[in-house]
Design goal:
Elements: E1 18-21, E2 24-26, H1 33-43, E3 48-49, E4 67-72, H2 74-89, E5 106-111, E6 127-128, E7 131-132
């Protein structure tokens, strides 16, 4: 699984959630530099090429040739939500009262080296029980 981070560390000051465009938000310094280093070190040996031969994408898919790791980790996702993202996202609420509630436990780590890319695309919603994802959360290390 993913490594334990210092989840008790308080974010001080709390990162500001800034809306760049309709439904697109950014918050800086969600993870500390040492937390980023810990995650990079723990995942780097598990990254695999997504398209080592640079083949064109299939119909309806985006071109990608980055490295990635897929891993389901409910504990890490819960801690990431509870201790880092929930405090930042507390002010988010749709007009119908819906609010963000968690992070999908199917986590991905991407690495881009010179010349690698992931073309424009739209993420497919994830459905778990009665819930459906509406946002994609990207944490840049």
């Amino acid at each position: 699984g993913f490594p334990d981070l210092d989840w008790k560390r308080k974010m001080n000051p709390l990162p500001e959630l800034v809306e760049l465009a309709d439904g697109i938000f950014v918050a800086d310094n969600v993870l500390s530099p040492s937390e980023c280093e810990t995650l990079i070190a723990a995942t780097k040996d598990f990254l695999q090429p997504t398209n080592a031969r640079n083949l064109p994408p299939k119909k309806g898919e985006a071109f990608r040739n980055n490295d990635r790791m897929l891993h389901r980790d409910e504990r890490f996702a819960d801690q990431l939500w509870k201790h880092r993202l929930a405090p930042i996202c507390a002010s988010l609420e749709r007009s119908d009262g819906a609010r963000p509630t968690n992070v999908n436990a199917d986590l991905r780590v991407y690495r881009y080296t010179t010349g690698q890319s992931f073309g424009p695309h739209i993420d497919v919603p994830v459905v778990e029980g009665k819930f459906e994802s509406e946002f994609t959360v990207l944490v840049y290390l």
